[in-house]
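Two proteins, back to back. First:
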Amino acid sequence: MAIIGTYECKIDAKGRVLVPASLKKQLPGIGDGFVLKRSVFESCLELWPMAEWDRMMSKIGKLNPFDKKNDAFIRRFMAGVKNVEIDDAGRLLIAKDLIDFAQISKDLVFSSKVNIMEIWDKKLYEATLEVDDFDFGELAQDVMSNISFDE
């Protein structure tokens, strides 16, 4: 199930973010909670619905922990991972270490990434989208041209 949309929000001094109602309606298994973690590639956070996290953990759990590369990957992938919930007031609490990692100030953006959400500082998010030397058309061709659309 895909989550759709980009949502601008504000974070308070305690690290609480009011999750937009239109986003909350899309989030699967809201009562099951979520996992909040550092992104692998970007200075942002990832909000994983618990079912999606469990699917990923079943894959990662099959890695041989006695392989040095696997061990290093697992350690870094799991760094800063937090169980989080959306409270009765519709707020999500982001821990200070994750706020610091993502350089989140007052304004942030929830951005859909298929089955998870990314959480960005608004200025960093906009800067990522405005890169001048980046050819999205070329990237789209490289990534999507080998996918079969016959299914």
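And the second protein:
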Amino acid sequence: MLKKMNKTTKNNMITYGIVIAAFIIVQILVSAGSLSSLMQGLLVPLCVYVILALSLNLTVGILGELSLGHAGFMCVGAFSSAFFSKCMEGIIPSAGLRFFLALLIGAVLAGIFGILIGIPVLRLKGDYLAIVTLAFGEIIKNVINVFFIGKDSNGFHFSMKDAVALDMEPDGMVIVNGPQGITGTPKDSTFLIGIILILITLVIILNMVNSRDGRAIMAIRDNRIAAESIGINITKYKLMAFSVSAALAGVAGVLYAHNLSTLTALPKNFGYNMSIMILVFVVLGGIGNMRGSIIAAVILTLLPELLRGLSDYRMLIYAIVLILMMLFNWAPKSIEWREKHSFRRLTAKKKTAKEAE
């Protein structure tokens, strides 16, 4: 048991080490002026996508349920935190404190939505669950697009018609302007904060997976009937994993919202395509493999930008890389080759050879 515990801790430390090493390398490149402004602009979005991939892997890989509404939880976190930051900009002068509170609000609200959606949805299975979560993501996005919210000395004003219908005083401020979203959100997100949030996400997920609760969740994934027969509360553990996943997606949304001057609920930001893209990160990185999710999210986010010079062949190369990554991760021959040539297997062979001598 102790040996197994040490192995788990060692694997976790390697994962944390990879993230910290990546941060140090990027900082060195930025200091040396070797990183273009375009690549520097991608650093915070990279952190956002890594957190989203890790959080979705908790639902898809550990819980074993297919969710296509992850962008919806991200949207809840993004808009709730941006709304708070916009309202509190003049009241809370400290950017650090304001961002921390916005982070808590985004995570808590996304987690609450996760519980509210999870209670009815997690009774469904397979394709039905995927369809309902997809519908949730689309509903959230469209509801936000019809809201107009303003603030003046009399308080908040709401409308679902247009900004004029808010009927505010001349010095009033429109916070949410329907399809135009929220403008002027404080740009508090940084690469350092993104890395810290990735590490916190990893700590939460890896500790949860290796805990008693995590083993119960994986038991439900592997065999629901057997898990129920030994007294595991199916609803409790499924809801736990789903709500934690939603809260972490909300954290990614907060980081995303505070990296933009204008936040809009466009389909490309929080729609079906965003949910599918996050799912692609999870599948290509390996379902249940947190380290793989990080690597896949980084590669597939950077690749289109690195290939921008090859305008005619950019998406062709991107598609080929997707296919190769899928074959490497899931083809039976590739799995067999990786197991045969794994570092652990090679070191075990060397030890055996030395003992024989």
